[in-house]
Amino acid sequence: MTAVFETAGKKEGLQIWRVENFKLVENSEAIHGNFYVGDSYLLLKTIKTRNGKLRWDLHFWLGSESSQDERGAAAILTCQMDEYMGGDPVQYRQLQGYESSEFMAMFKTGVKYMQGGVESGFKQVKTNVSESKRLLHVKGRRSVRATEVPMKWSSFNHGDSFILDYENNVYQWNGKECNHFEKLKANNVARAIISYEKGGKGKLIKIEDGERIPINMLQALLGTPGDILPSVPDDVVLSTDTSPAVLYHVCADTGKLIITEIGYAPLEQDQLDSGDSYILDNGSQGKIFVWKGKGASREERLGALEYANKFIERKNYSESTGIEIMAEGAETILFKQFFSSWRNKDETVGFGKIYAANKIAKIEQIKFDMKSLNDSKLAAKYRMVDDGSGKLEIWRVEDGFQSVDPSMYGVFYDNHCYIMLYTYKPSRREEYIIYFWQGRQAPIQKVTVSSFLAVELCRKYRDRPVQVRVIQGKEPPHLLSLFGGKPMIIVSGNEKISNFISGIDDVALLQIFCTATGGRAIQVSTSAGSLNSNDAFVLKTRSSCYIWVGLGASDDEIDGAKFVANKLCIHTPVVRKEGKESPGFWYWLGGKQEYANHPRLHEDLNENPPRLFGISDASGRLVVDEVPGDFTQADLCEDDVMMLDVWDQIFIWIGNGANSQERKEAPKLAEDYIKSDPRKRDARTSIITITQGNEPLSFTGFLPTWDPKFVYSKTL
Hints:
The protein has 716 residues and is α/β, with parallel strands linked by helices.
């Protein structure tokens, strides 16, 4: 086992092992996100922090049908890996169907649960072949889970989406009670199967409940469509139990393991002794923590984990209760918030209040460092096949292929579609990826033609390339890496149909921002109201060029702004920091006016990131769930009510299609959410209700590149 541990966590990225006969067998990246219900897995996420150091999240995942021996082996192997790595990883216990937001955020297109396992004769997921035969039940509006179910019509219900992967094609069937957002998520899963498991080959066929069923579906599934069951309600995921968390001391100094209750949250940091271990029981809200002091004995460390598991059974907690294990010095934001103050190593003052409530806070988000790809294991969740240094060719979609001048690679117009052919050589032979990018304002004719041209180009290379459809705003990180670490530039204007890119507006304002998935520069309305204190901007005019640096802009965003200015402007850029603008700057923006400059935008939002939740009763029961990972305007569902928590304020956003029950219950849920904060959050925290189309700058500033003309129905 030492050989496996020696390769663990050396480079940034995600590694997954399946527990097989009490040993760890590493999964290939091609099947990351696929889990067999009869197995257990270890997942190690290695993250490079801003200071260049590595930190680790170590998850052990337990399938619903995995044996007790396998579950025990997974727990033991997790402890062994943790010990080998010096106790530095933060450990998480994950149960199938109840995975944490930290876990789900690693798989942007969701996870798939497959039938079987090692003991029942494990079979790898077939990729890029025509023999595939499986039926997936897709559930979840934001954290998507696709579970393999028996291939018969009685597996279907009218409230969810189902995906039949049969031979060369993928069929998406949508129940009549699905809304647009759920259909979109299921569509993302179906397209991911085609792109990543079938190598871009195969056709996606959509069927709505009640429509004529294709003959292949009728032949593949047992029974008849008359066997379809009624809709199944989702589980309510937000607890309003306000029971305080309890701290327990775990000590074996007397030769016997003794568990002693210490007190209730909020706690004091000096209640933790480096020589022992502790259990922080917040099981009433779905989480138990194990803290291991640097001087804790092996018996105390393992005993704390054993008792944490016993708490779930003895206190009748939900089986979905998560267990989070950390060493002294590696405490998570979620753990620290139970203490009235907290000092990290070498800090002279406490870190102040943490913004999130305990049920739904998570580890700080770390930006994906594109500069380090040559030295890191590329993250499987991002499908990073290499560092983007291969050969790139780009065509604009007209009646056919229109070559783009290489000097303007990386500049895209939002009213056009583009075809990109990327060639790389991972081993002895060349491999290919075809990205067909579709601008948000592109006419439907060009969108359709782009799909046909991608197929045509694929055939030219004997169907070897992987095809990836990309919608503007949802660019995968590998695509963003193709431009030499510089931002992808998306502009409006009237692009001329010629051999050269031209037509960028004489006066244009571009917003530059970086997220965990890379950098973009997007043209926004040329108005002072478009500015955002959290980002950097480039203002291109007929006689000048400005770089505006918001108080919260990162160094990467400032560097990106300088690149964009030099790329698009003929004049030498002038840097203006927020608050130091010249009259000429405001003149080109139509005068000074209010913009998004909420104080929270000046802070490091990676330390205390805002959180977004959806509130829906589409299934007949009120469900509150979190949008995992980075979120944008496109994650707002107009059929629901959304809740945005920015710590000192909570926004209730009411979509045009939200029903009366959702509108009525949302403010009460926000109040309960505040009360459940173990840090004794101020009950007077402002709750602001807004409606779709009437969003204030204090709200839109937390959603990158807000577009007031965004068409939600087109996205959904």
